[in-house]
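Q: What structure does this chain adopt?
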Amino acid sequence: MVLRIMISIIGKAVKTKYRHIINIMFGLVGVVLLGGCAADSADASQQSVSRNQRDIYLSPYSQTYPDVTPVLSHRALPDNYVVYDELSPMMEIENTKIHCFITHSRNVDFQGDFIYNGSSSWFSKVPLDKDDYYVYGFMPSVEKASVTTLDPNDANSIYEQGAIITFNNMDAVTTSDLCVIVGVKGAEGNETAIANMDMKLGNFKYNADNEGDHIYLLMNHLYAALQFRMTIDSEYRQLRKIKLTKLELQSPNWEKVTVKATLTPNENGTLPLAINQTPTTGVGAWKTLYSGSEKELDPTTPQEFLAFVAPGVGNKTFKMRSTYNVYDRYDNLIGERTAENVLTLKFEENKEALAAGEKYTFNLTVNPTYLYVLSDPDLDNPTVVVN
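A:
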């Protein structure tokens, strides 16, 4: 209404000799608009200072992978958790980030990466009020993930009731151990052993006022693990040395997979995680499990390698490609070789698919078909026997 009155006055003033009124009116408009901008700026500033930027540290722990291969032990899932970076020595933990959604009601108040800070701790500055928050997240950080409430179309669905984290278009084979948060607890520091923290699965609530600036995390796996244990036949070892330089793995049936991790808080300490996935059929990319200096195969001490694969009924056959150098008994290089092997998992009668959080072991022995004919090509291109 103020602007309409001013414009009317300006229109009439143009027809009169008092054109200086126009300048006065524009000056008044400028004052009104500047006053409005100043008020908006003050509101925004007030909103910004209402939340303190706090240094928050995360300490993630995860369950080890129990080996469920039929010929090996049948251990139950361990009760205790180990520091995440102890799970696989292959992972470059310094470059691994934790992605967190710190939520309240229907809002995601903070979304971002926590950076490795040393001593198994990850750090970020987070704007927090003195209130209860629900913490969801995963590691390592990936760009193709999003979070929603359990029913984003329902106005009554809030993050206190749970969340769904969706990972889109993920590789079916990877060298990263993708884990989601399944329990949190705040503390003043991270000096307390995880076994003494009295943590519970299913608790995602963190009180920013009373629980300190460190948050312990319990993590659970979204993928299964494949372990490869490579040795060489003792008799063949007397004739030839095999030194591995590269090991790759491929899923010939699943190229990508979309994973939905449904997280439902509870108070009884049970696992709050349900996993649903949709695969994209096709030939996956080769993933490098190892590449570097020569690793000589030994008859008694295996060289061990680990890969992580999307669990499911259709993902049980893999291709392994090995690049290695062959030497004679006098350490003379015969040449570089490449071999491909098809590896198919055989399940127990009551199982028909890979399961998340379980490890399956392949024992691989370099063992040529014929040893008594030294000129046989098989001597320089040995057969890999899969047990």
